[in-house]
Amino acid sequence: MEKRSKAIQGRIREKAKELLSNKTVDLVIGFGEGSLPLRTTPRFIRNPDKVDRLIWNSFCENNLATYLHKLSQFKVGLVVKGCDARSINALFLEKRFKPDQLFLIGVPCQRMVDRRKVKKAVRGEILQAVEEEDQIIVEGEGFKKALNRNDFLYPSCQVCTHRTPLQVNVLVGDPVEESPLTRTHPEIMEFEKKSPEERWNFFEKESSRCIRCYACREVCPMCYCTECFVDSSNPKWIAKGLSPSDLEFYHIVRAYHQTGRCSGCGACERACPMEIRLTYLTQKLNLDVKELFDFETGIDTETLPPLSTYEMEDKQEFIK
To answer: Both ends of the chain: CA-CA distance in Å?
Structure first.
């Protein structure tokens, strides 16, 4: 795994340097070393001599597509995983950028390591973390531990069915074997087994921890409204407190807003400081859209999401 990551890292740097040197793009957005172990940080490179700041490893979790909304005046080179590329395809359908504005550097994803799981697996503060083959070696004061990488993957990565980016300009790595979309998402299966009352109690418990920091909204590339409904004062949709009804309303509306638009990247759940389980809602809706309309987010660059269009042949069983 380490050798593969280093090879991909080298190819990302080569392509970034070529794009910047030839002025094909104004900047390249990729990943750089974070200030903490197990973390990377988004890196904005404008100078071809600084491409050695770009890295690639199993901690490159961010969906960098979220930065595109503020860079409409630039030509951008963007490092994308499978889920990131699907978000960009969805944004393309919503006319968020011009076709020639982006140059996508696609990286077949090896699946990302869940830093929270790793931290919970050791006692003490982690001061250093590196990848070695299929292991994550973590060190701290008085301990050094080797963890099996595949036991510490993000839930969204475990069930990802499109790890090779689609519709990219260049692919810097060999395509990975994909698995078909199935109804085996463990959290969704667990949720569907519950009675309606149990489902609501579960949702109520999860949403009650929300502090309305809106980190989930800020990291999502599909949340780009100039004014979010929670910030609107005319009309006023939601109060500014932490009443259960307001928290529940926010999360329900947010989930439905993502129906057929969410790529399942899991950025919202990773960003949540309260560790609220968010993706079980969006992925449940995505699976429903797949079953009802045979549609997956970001696969087809010409077909709009089902809730963004209407056809006479649409199923209407809900009409009595």
So the answer is: 55
Q: What are phi and psi for residue 254, nearest 5 degrees?
A: -60, -45
Nearest in space to 119 (alpha carbons), one of 219, 39, 56, 61: 39
Tokens of 210: 């929300």
Residues 6+ apart with CB under 8 A from 262: 222, 282, 283, 285, 286, 297
Amino acid (1-letter code) at residue 198: E
Q: What is the DSSP letter of 78?
A: E
E strands within the chain?
27-33, 40-45, 76-80, 102-106, 126-132, 135-140, 143-148, 170-171
CA–CA separation, 185 and 183 (whole Å)? 6
- Read off the pLDDT of residues 2-59 as tens digits, 9 standing for 90 and up: 667 889 999 999 999 999 999 999 999 999 999 999 999 999 999 999 999 999 999 9
Q: Whole-structure pTM over 0.85, yes or no? A: yes
Nearest Cα neighbor of 24 from 35, 33, 36, 15 is 15
Strand order in the sheet with 170-171: 40-45, 27-33, 76-80, 102-106, 170-171
Amino acid at 186: P
ω into 235 cis (within 30 of 0):
yes
- What are the pLDDT digits (tens) for 79-120? 999 999 999 999 999 999 887 899 999 999 999 999 999 999
Q: For helices 279-293 and 244-257, what crossing angle results, to 10°?
A: 40
Q: Are 58 and 8 in contact (CB under 8 A)?
A: no
Structure tokens at 107: 């990286």
Quick: pLDDT tens for 159-214: 888 999 999 999 998 898 877 655 567 778 888 889 999 999 999 999 999 999 99
